[in-house]
Structures are given as C-alpha cells and as structure tokens.
Automatic annotation (TrEMBL):
Belongs to the TRAFAC class TrmE-Era-EngA-EngB-Septin-like GTPase superfamily. EngB GTPase family. This is P-loop containing nucleoside triphosphate hydrolase protein. Residues 116-301 form the EngB-type G domain. CDD domains: YihA_EngB. The keyword Hydrolase applies. Transmembrane segments: none annotated. GO terms for molecular function: GTP binding; hydrolase activity; metal ion binding. It comes from Gigaspora rosea. InterPro entries: G_ENGB_dom, GTP-bd, GTP-bd_ribosome_bio_YsxC, P-loop_NTPase.
Amino acid sequence: MHITKFTIDKTRLLPILTKKLSSVTQSKAPKSLSNRQLFRQILPPHETLREIEALNLGKPRKRNSSPFKKKVNIIEKKKLERRLGDLTLEQEEHLELPHLSFFAGAKIPTSFPPERVQELCFVGRSNVGKSSLINALADTTVVRTSDKPGLTQQINFYAAGNMFNMVDMPGYGFAYVKDEERLKWKELIEIYISQRKTLKRIFVIVDARHASTPEPPEPKLGLKIADKEFISMLDRKNIEFQIILTKCDMVIAPDLARRHTIVKEQLQVYKNAIPQPMMVSARRKAGIYKLRKLLLTIIGGLERAREVANKKKEHRLADINNKSKTPLHKILKKFTNKKTPRYFYVKRKRERKSLKKE
C-alpha cells in the first residue's frame, strides 16, 4: 500500500498572517481616556474624606442581601434617616435660626421690599434643592418644594425673625417654562444682585451628582456651563459668592470627595469666590449645622444665637430637676387612675361570675 505525504507550503501563509496581525495592531491603537477614567484618576485629599466621614455624608454602599436577614423596623429606620450628621456639635450648642416666615415675592424690580436688614441669597440651577436647603436650615416647611424643575418663579423673601432675610431665587437653566420667561428670571436676578445693598453673600447651589458631567470644550469635568456663566457674571461685578454642594447623600463618599476637589480647583480662577465649597444633605440634615453656624457668623448673630440656646438649655434642665423632685407615688398615681377598656372587661366578667354563684 502506497502512502502519499502531504506537505504545507509555509510561504503561502506568510502574507495572510502578516495582514491579520497588522489589522489587529491598527485596531488596538491607544485611545484618549474617557471622562469616567479621568474622573477615577483624581486622588482627593485625606482632609476632604475625613470631613465627609465626620459629617456623615455620602451614599452608603449596598450590602449583599441575605435570606436570613432580620426584618427592618420602619420606625428605627426613619430615625436613622433623619439623624443629624454632626450630632456631637448639635449637642454642644444646639444653635437655631429665628422663626422663618414668608413676607414678600417679586416678579418685577419695583416689587422688591425695602432694604431694612441683611440678606443672604440662595441661587442655582433648577431642581438642585435650593428651597429644601432653606427649609433644613430653618428647620421648617414654609418654603414650597417640588421634584419638577421651575416651581419657584419669582424672588421669594423670607424673614428670619428681625435678624436677617433669606432670599430664594428662581432657578437658571432648564425648567418647564418658556424661554422668554427664563430670560425674564435671569434679568430679574441680575438686577437684584447688582442693586441690593443689604446683600451680604450669595450662595450658589450645585447638585453634587452633576458636578462631573461631560460637556464641551475640554476639560469635560466640573461645573456645568450655566453655573460657570453665572459665577463669571458675579466675578465681573465683584460680588462675593460661595458654592454649596447639595444632595451629598446620593453620591458615594469617594466620588463626592473627587467632585469637591474638582470644584475647589475650578474656583481658583475666580477672585471673588470663597475658596472652600461646602457639602450638605437637606434630607439627612448632614452638614446643616456647620452651614447654619456660617450664616449666623456672616450676619453677626452667632453670639445672640448662643445666648438663646443657653437659655433654652437652662429651662430644659430646670424642668428635668422639677420632675425629678416629685414623689414616686404621685407619678404612679397618674397611671393607676386611668381605667383602660381591659379594666372594665375584667370587672364585668367578675360580676357575671358572682351572679352565677348566687
């Protein structure tokens, strides 16, 4: 039996192999880094991370769910959600703002109220949490809030007692209104900012979730175009302003620290900017005490607020001491005298038994 040998011509394969390898190398050419990769490469300072941890900011990471997990107590969960991030500081001083009340709204410059006391202004893009922040600072629900952008359609003035006014501005940028209406808001805001003499400081509110949104031209990280245009206008008019990052409970701590670092670096260009942005969460009240203390310092009412807090503390201690002096039998008597439905049920049952025996 004759066996034929098969041979492979290697020279015929060479051109094919070289062609394929060259196409692979061309497809794997080095590309520019994406926005996400650039964002992840930022190393925030340890001080920022420590501040976030101390104020209890940042979104908690999800843990693996277990089938044997205990049922969550809803009441305890709500208590934890509403807890103060800086509780130790609150326990030390427990500073509060005076009672907040709405007293004026302006859609045209002639409707501005007279300049009697100092004013603090809160402005930002639509739906960044300006109204919710004012409510959290004053511990009230006077300011109307909504998830729909563009609820605040005029300049609203709120009086914090006789101490100062808090001013809630309509949002610039996107809103469910016509372009003509938004242009009117912009003109109204600029007139108020440039003409108001009692205005002490402007707080520009920025959503912490959107502080690293891609937008041309490069660099594609940091504040949005609408925010940059507004703070550039403030800088040209030599008006002092400060950035506040809100909704910080919806971003994980490392990303929040990176966004804080980006915004802080971008503010170095503006000469009238306060170099340190603040971080707060109105929902969890985290960082609110620190901001409240800053407001009182700006208007010169910190000592007065401390005196009020100390007086309230003394009254609370006096009430506790008076209650502790009452005899125990008087305290118990209040509870024993109350006849519950169970008491009447047992009483009737005993009466029936006695009737049957007779």
